[in-house]
């Protein structure tokens, strides 16, 4: 069976809510010592927007799978979104059909396809772990065993016995195993993404959860894998997928590349002046992360938060940030001391401060020093 290895730093629950006003610090100019990396747990629900406008936490997702899982509109939608987001079409079809099925079984759960897709991306890169792919019958070309997940110290944090493209644990599979094609007469197959996505949906919705509510979303995803690193990556990925899906048009490829880079760095420690492992540092500071993320897309940014604020085109004071925008904190007349990358649904990825890891935060909090947003890519 195919297996992969992911090496990252451990995230542990934070004492605070992770608000920017408390966490944001100035970026450094020289690499410092390796920092420990406790991070805040996600506290907001799956991404949701209304006609492209940000609605914030606690609102019902507006995005729905069209045509109730059938018809040409459904198939075109699957093709479009899969292509925009680099989701294999067969995998996208599995997430969408499982969402439709759950809407019929448990409509009050409000499960969105972006949550299933965020889990699939985080668990196995949509079945592409170790170079495989999801075949037309829903199974990976090579069966997927446990994908070993390790923290920075080398400790294994993957779930023993987890398998398949959704990396479902034996306990989840034993309780919720579902077969997507009830007319087939076959047994559920953990390697079949159609079955695994439906099984994950039932586990997410267990106990009458409403995934529109932040605490229910967190509890649902935690039921699949209760690791803060996993939760942060699923949350960030689902935010990006939901934002692009609601816009209904192809995203800028450079923005997607930059945002994807940032998601993959979730869990690395804050290092003052850090530019990431590619540059020989254990982690990043705030502007080191944004510089490296956009650098991966071929876009050069100034190195510090203050210089980035002064050099990228700023959006209007009443304009909502878009996916990939840089969000700044501080006083433009004296010093911009912090920057993050906006990922939709009122959230950002940032390297907050000493003792915290790269993670997901709400981009606004009461009493913060938000100074505005800039758009590196028009």
User: In percent, how helical is the residue content?
Assistant: 25-40%
Number of helices: 11
Radius of gyration: 20 Å
Structural class call reads: alpha+beta
Q: What is the general shape?
A: globular
Number of strands: 9
| N-to-C series of helices and strands | EHEEHHHEHHHHHHHEEEEE
Lateral arrangement of strands in the main beta sheet: 8-7-6-5-9
How far do the termini sit from each other?
Answer: 44 Å
Mean pLDDT: 84
Percent of residues in beta strands: 5-15%
What does the largest sheet look like? 5 strands, antiparallel
Low-confidence stretches: 1-24, 29-62
Q: Which short descriptors sum up this protein?
A:
9 strands, alpha+beta, disordered N terminus, 378 residues
How does this structure look, described?
With 378 residues, this protein is α+β, with helices and mostly antiparallel strands. It is 33% helix and 10% strand. It is built from 11 helices and 9 strands. Strand 6 and strand 7 form a beta hairpin. The longest helix has 20 residues.
Task: Give a brief rundown of this model.
By secondary structure, the chain is an alpha+beta fold. It has eleven helices and nine strands.
Q: What layout of secondary structure does this protein have?
A:
Blueprint: E1 5-7, H1 20-23, E2 49-50, E3 53-54, H2 72-85, H3 89-105, H4 113-124, E4 148-150, H5 170-176, H6 193-204, H7 214-224, H8 228-247, H9 253-264, H10 286-295, H11 305-311, E5 326-331, E6 335-344, E7 347-350, E8 359-362, E9 370-374
Helix pairs in contact: 2-3, 3-4, 3-6, 4-8, 5-6, 8-9, 9-10
């Amino acid at each position: 069976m195919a297996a992969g290895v992911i090496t990252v730093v451990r995230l542990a629950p934070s004492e605070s809510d992770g608000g920017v006003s408390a966490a944001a610090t100035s970026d450094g100019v020289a690499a410092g010592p390796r920092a420990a990396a406790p991070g805040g747990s996600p506290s907001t629900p799956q991404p949701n927007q209304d006609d492209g406008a940000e609605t914030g936490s606690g609102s019902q997702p507006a995005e729905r799978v069209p045509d109730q899982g059938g018809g040409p509109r459904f198939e075109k939608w699957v093709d479009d979104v899969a292509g925009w987001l680099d989701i294999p079409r067969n995998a996208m079809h599995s997430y969408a059909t499982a969402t439709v099925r759950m809407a019929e079984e448990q409509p009050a759960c409000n499960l969105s396809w972006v949550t299933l897709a965020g889990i699939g991306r985080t668990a196995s890169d949509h079945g592409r772990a170790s170079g495989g792919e999801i075949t037309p019958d829903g199974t990976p070309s090579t069966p997927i065993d446990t994908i070993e997940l390790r923290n920075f110290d080398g400790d294994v944090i993957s779930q023993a016995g987890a398998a398949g493209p959704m990396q479902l644990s034996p306990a989840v599979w034993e309780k919720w195993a579902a077969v997507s094609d009830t007319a087939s007469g076959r047994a559920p197959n953990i390697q079949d993404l159609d079955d695994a996505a439906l099984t994950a949906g039932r586990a997410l919705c267990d106990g009458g959860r409403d995934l529109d509510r932040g605490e229910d979303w967190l509890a649902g995803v935690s039921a699949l894998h209760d690791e803060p690193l996993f939760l942060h990556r699923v949350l960030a990925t689902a935010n990006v997928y939901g934002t692009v899906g609601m816009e209904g048009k192809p995203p800028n490829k450079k923005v997607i590349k930059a945002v994807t880079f940032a998601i993959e760095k979730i869990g690395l420690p804050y290092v003052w002046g850090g530019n990431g492992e590619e540059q020989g540092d254990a982690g990043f500071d705030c502007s080191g992360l944004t510089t490296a993320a956009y650098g991966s897309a071929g876009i050069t940014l100034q190195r510090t938060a203050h210089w980035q604020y002064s050099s990228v085109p700023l959006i209007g004071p009443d304009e909502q940030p878009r996916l990939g925008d840089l969000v700044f904190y501080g006083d433009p007349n004296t010093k911009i001391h912090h920057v993050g990358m906006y990922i939709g649904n009122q959230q950002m990825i940032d390297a907050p401060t000493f003792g915290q890891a790269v993670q997901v935060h709400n981009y606004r909090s009461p009493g913060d020093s938000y100074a505005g947003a800039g758009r590196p890519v028009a």
